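Format notes (please read before filing issues)

Several people have asked whether sequences and structure tokens are stored in separate files. They are not. Every record keeps both together, in the order shown below: the sequence lines, then the token lines. Line labels are part of the format and must not be stripped during preprocessing.
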Amino acid sequence: MSGRATRATTAVDRLKVRSGNAKYSMSRTGSGHFFLTEGAGQPPLCAPLELDDFVAFVNGISPGPPRRVSKLDVAFEKQLVKKTP
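Then the structure lines:
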């Protein structure tokens, strides 16, 4: 499997976990474009897209987990704001 397909497959796997729908499926056209369906035999949810556009589309369907912020991160960001002229 190529690196392109692995990156797209990983995005779909993350979507399955975030959404709770294990039926999402990715297909690849002969020209190297990707599209997403909600299961085998279902109509595509998007037109065939290039890899970067496909990954952005899949990531936009279901939001990711909230970013964890520690007290140290907050303190560091405050220091950055103070040092800017």
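For reference, the curators noted about this record: The helical segments are 3-19, 51-61, 71-83. Residues 3-19 form the longest helix (17 residues).
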